[in-house]
Design a protein that fits this description.
The protein is α/β, with parallel strands linked by helices. The chain has helices at residues 10-21, 60-70, 86-95, 98-125, 143-158, 168-174, 198-211, 253-259, 326-339, 384-399, and strands at residues 2-6, 25-30, 46-47, 75-77, 132-140, 164-167, 186-196, 215-218, 222-226, 232-235, 238-241, 244-247, 267-277, 292-295, 300-305, 308-317, 350-358, 365-368, 374-378.
Length: 417
């Protein structure tokens, strides 16, 4: 089959590789000049299937309101742009019900575990060499946070996800660079999870896809997708016909969906990151994290990527690319200084803001759009890197007319209608 893939972020690159590896003739359209140039550019790098979960969760609406009053925290509303997202927020609020959240979290966890397995297979079989390390530690500052974490730990145990509940002393042995002055009640350590450089992986997998015949067309923005007997792609004034078209273009997919008369509640939820070199001091060999830690209170991740540290978090609804929320950035710096004071070279810090295309209930949408030959691989939110390899494999199986390799409950388009 001749297949077009729209978008070359981590989801688009993995999809292009899987389709090319299956023997399809693949053309990839990307509006930027390289792969992983937008949402995938500076993400936290976390690969932790056990902690992939929807932002729509019990207690989150109240937490959002409290944060609005305090003007601090991981989930914020941009006052100027939020009005256009009210329908999305309504659906998000409804998805925070316990039963809906449990269904969606289980679906995301199944997909994340498949993705982890596929990522390991590709890394090993293709001999990919990108920055990555094992271990993911969730830090719980208080007894209250530990109590709130227990239902999630029960689910991890039921699903067979390896983890350890650590006391503060043991947590500091796992991550010896943690500041002994910062209060710590307990930690959840996931030894098989970890962190990896998403952009490096995407660049290397793009090379592998190209060697299998995938044609990457950079600096090309798709203007319209046509549906009929077989779909068409209009770009740079030229229309081409394909046997299948797969949309992996994140928030940029919205106008293309409109051209197909498809409505999908896909919205950009903005995330922030700060990346800086780690200090190199012989007297303090454990500056910074060994792998990755997650601060449960502020919902912020601190990751080690080679000799750099990246602190990432926040979920800003209704924001814009050109307007930075300084409070969100201060929260990132606060968490970094709380746990690893003086670990990074502040004068060389680079900040980033990126749109994470999200569906209100949490899981992505995978599979047919309902139109002949048009497929969807969209809405991964903050979990794109953790879900990409599994999503791509699922999509490739479906395009080939084979059964998906996992239960697709809560992952199809029909749930959003």
């Amino acid at each position: 089959m001749r297949v077009a893939v729209i978008g070359a972020g981590i989801v688009g690159v993995t999809t292009a590789f899987e389709l090319a590896a299956d023997g399809h003739e693949v053309v990839v359209y990307e509006r930027r000049g390289s792969v992983a140039a937008e949402t995938s550019f500076a993400n936290a790098g976390v690969l932790a299937p056990g902690y992939v979960m929807p932002s729509a969760a019990p207690g989150m609406p109240l937490k959002l309101m409290l944060q609005l009053f305090r003007r601090e925290g991981a989930l914020t509303l941009d006052g100027l742009g939020v009005w256009g997202q009210l329908p999305w927020l309504w659906r998000w609020w409804r998805a925070c019900r316990p039963g809906v959240h449990a269904t969606n979290r289980a679906a995301m966890l199944r997909l994340a575990r498949l993705s982890q397995e596929r990522l390991a297979t590709l890394t090993r079989s293709l001999r990919l060499d990108y920055e990555h390390s094992r271990g993911y530690t969730v830090l719980l500052r208080s007894e209250r946070e530990l109590k709130r974490a227990r239902p999630g730990l029960k689910l991890l145990a039921e699903l067979g996800v390896p983890f350890e509940l650590l006391d503060a002393e043991r947590a500091r042995q796992v991550e010896p660079g943690l500041n002994p002055e910062t209060a710590l009640r307990a930690a959840v350590h996931l030894p098989q999870d970890g962190v990896g450089n998403c952009r490096q992986f995407a660049q290397q997998l793009k090379t592998e896809a190209a060697q299998r015949g995938a044609d990457f067309r950079f600096g090309v923005e798709v203007e319209r997708i046509g549906a009929g007997g077989s779909p068409t792609v209009l770009a740079c004034g030229r229309e081409e016909r394909f046997d299948a078209v797969v949309l992996c273009s994140g928030a940029a997919s919205v106008p293309l969906l409109h051209s197909l008369r498809l409505k999908l509640p896909l919205a950009p939820v903005w995330g922030y990151a700060v990346t800086a070199p780690l200090r190199q001091l012989e007297a303090y060999p454990d500056l910074g994290p060994r792998s990755a830690i997650f601060d449960e209170r502020f919902r912020v991740t601190v990751s080690r990527l080679g000799q750099r540290v990246r602190v990432a978090g926040s979920s800003e609804i209704g924001g814009r690319a050109d307007r930075y929320d300084e409070r969100a950035l201060r929260t990132l710096y606060r968490v970094l200084e709380d746990w690893f004071p003086g670990a990074f070279v502040a004068t060389q810090a680079q900040r980033w803001k990126g749109a994470r295309p999200s569906l209100p209930d949490g899981p992505p949408v995978l599979g047919t759009s309902g139109l002949p030959g048009v497929w969807l691989n969209l809405g991964h939110g903050a979990s794109g890197w953790a879900l990409a390899c599994g999503s791509a494999r699922v999509l490739a199986e479906q395009v080939a007319g084979r059964a998906a390799p996992l239960d697709m409950t809560a992952l199809g388009l029909e749930r959003l209608r």
